[in-house]
Amino acid sequence: MSAYAALRGAGYRAYTRDRTTLFFTFAFPLLFLVVFGLIFSGQDVEESGRPYISYIAPGVLSWGVANAAVFGVAFTLMQWRRDDILRLIRMTPTPLSAVLGSRFVLALGIGLVQAALFVAVALLPAFGLALSGRWPLAVPLLVLGITAFLALGAIVGSFTSTPEAVAAVANCLMVPMAFLSGSFYPLDAMPEWMRTLSWILPLRHLNDGVSGALTGSGDLGDLGVAAGGLAVFAVVFGVVAVRCFRWSDRV
Amino acid sequence: MTKEPTVSPTPGPGDDAQPAVVLTGVRKHYGATRAVDGVSFTIARGEFFGLLGPNGAGKTTLIEIMEGLREADAGTVAVLGTSPWPRDRALLPRLGVQTQSSAFFVRLTAREHLATVAALYRAEPAAVDRTLALVGLAEQAGTRVEDLSGGQRQRLAIASALVHDPELLFLDEPTAALDPQARRALWRVLRDLKGAGRTIVYTTHHLDEAEALCDRVAIMAEGRVSALDSPNRLIAGATSATRLLVPAERLTLAQASDLPGVSRASLEGDVVVLETEDPGPLLAAVERTAGLHGVQTRTATLEDVYLTITEARSTSERSTTS
């Protein structure tokens, strides 16, 4: 068994044996879907004439997947460093790529399962999401998004040393970003300057991409812009994450 | 080929004459604190080497420099012939490092944790159950790491250092949380490892343990090595006084002071303690005066030497700073 496979296996077991976290990782975005679905039931967005659900479902899905990626890796890295697990790994010939690669594969698995479950619920008549024929394009966009947000979470996990700090920092990043990127409220209904500002937020690009793929808003060029934006964020955050990575708080 | 960690010969390239560790003038400062202040010594292959000293003496920093977790500010460090800093992935599988008792992959069983560590070292899977049995955790193999007792956690941490059959082992207070039976069982494991040619670098606050196990000990104080020799030679060199303990009801202090060769006599609880440079004639005199029943003889231990050295060091430090 390779070091990568060993770490992936250990991470998978740790994850699936923590029933509470497992449940809420999948229930949290669904909860938002239910709340917003009830609030905006049957309404259309005035500016575009499209139903709210076609904004909110992709938006909440993107936010839920991004949130799980950031929190999952940030908590794990912080806890592994605090408990000297990273120090243990550091003393074995394991390359850093195996450590980060194993977390990446776990985050991808979680994100894709989250997305499938979420879309299945959103398609129920109560919520009334209608899928576009190009929905499979959401998969590569989600992969790019998870990569970018995983790297962001790795940065958070390298700069924090308590669970409280992880929660505070990650929430500070993710909650305002969710609103400013249109996850919980349609960007089309926001002021012009807010829409302009949202371009510097990675979640905006994930929202655009997932929305375009699932509901058919925009053209393929817009999907390309979203994918390109996410790729840039993934590279920038990835470089910073590798540079910030610390095996121990004490060295 | 099946390998038994307890009997296989030391693997590895190079000649056996090459020392396991060579330190020359190693220094490490944190701001104004001189954690390690010019340490030089050599640890031979197959040696059981004790690193002793009070908390804050610089032992942990020095060990971490040898393990390659920290870079020395000055001096040279050679471990199995190469520098441990920066991280050398070819050297790491040849070292075994006892982890903190908290450093377990969460929600795994003892066996799953050790199997993960073995895979990280690319050790053979069969080593996992063998190592669990070696440290006496075979029955707890299926227990979650969170549910292990303190002593069991400590043994699992030691197993993490042994599972890949390393040439050089760093053990940091490995018996601290163990009960007396587990402690003695670990002594046997360590003696077997030494018998198989492993080199062991050992820190402990149990001086009796260092005396029983170590070929040589270095006593550190204030970042420097204050004494370095075999336990027996350290004891012999430090003091020649012998203490005789006589039950107080059979000998008064006045009688004791009159006995031949007594340099000091004192009452400690229910025994009269006699100190002498020449125990032979004194024992004969005690036999005549009080009888030998219940009389105990105490010679200096490594603990006495240790306390003398570390206290002298801190006293001189106080007098120079005040």
From TrEMBL, chain A:
The ABC transmembrane type-2 domain, residue ranges: 20-248
Localization: Cell membrane; Membrane
Principal subcellular localisation of the protein: membrane
Record-stated family: Belongs to the ABC-2 integral membrane protein family.
Residue spans crossing the bilayer: 21-40, 52-77, 98-131, 137-159, 166-187, 223-245
One MF annotation (Gene Ontology) recorded for this entry: ABC-type transporter activity
Pfam families, alphabetized: ABC2_membrane
Record protein name field: Transport permease protein
The organism's place on the tree of life at top rank: Bacteria
PROSITE patterns from the UniProt entry: ABC_TM2
Any single GO CC term annotated in Swiss-Prot or TrEMBL for this entry: ATP-binding cassette (ABC) transporter complex
GO biological-process terms attached to the record: response to antibiotic
Record's keyword annotation contains Lipoprotein: no
Biological source species: Streptomyces radicis
Record keywords: Antibiotic resistance, Cell membrane, Membrane, Transmembrane, Transmembrane helix, Transport
Its membrane topology: Multi-pass membrane protein
InterPro entries xrefs: ABC2_TM, ABC2_TM_bact-type, ABC_2_transport, Nod_factor_ABC_transporter
UniProtKB/TrEMBL annotation, chain B:
Chief location: membrane
UniProt membrane topology term: Peripheral membrane protein
A GO molecular function held by the record: ATP hydrolysis activity
Compartment(s) of residence: Cell membrane
Pfam families from the UniProt entry: ABC_tran (PF00005)
Record-annotated ABC transporter domain positions: 21-247
Stored InterPro entries: AAA+_ATPase, ABC_transporter-like_ATP-bd, ABC_transporter-like_CS, ABC_transporter_ATP-binding, P-loop_NTPase
Keywords tagged on the record: Antibiotic resistance, ATP-binding, Cell membrane, Membrane, Nucleotide-binding, Translocase, Transport
GO cellular component, one term: plasma membrane
Keyword ATP-binding: yes
EC number(s) stated in the UniProt entry for this protein: 7.6.2.2
Keyword Transport among UniProt keywords: yes
GO biological-process terms attached to the record: response to antibiotic
Top-level taxon of origin: Bacteria
Protein family: Belongs to the ABC transporter superfamily. Drug exporter-1 (DrugE1) (TC 3.A.1.105) family.
Protein name: ABC-type xenobiotic transporter
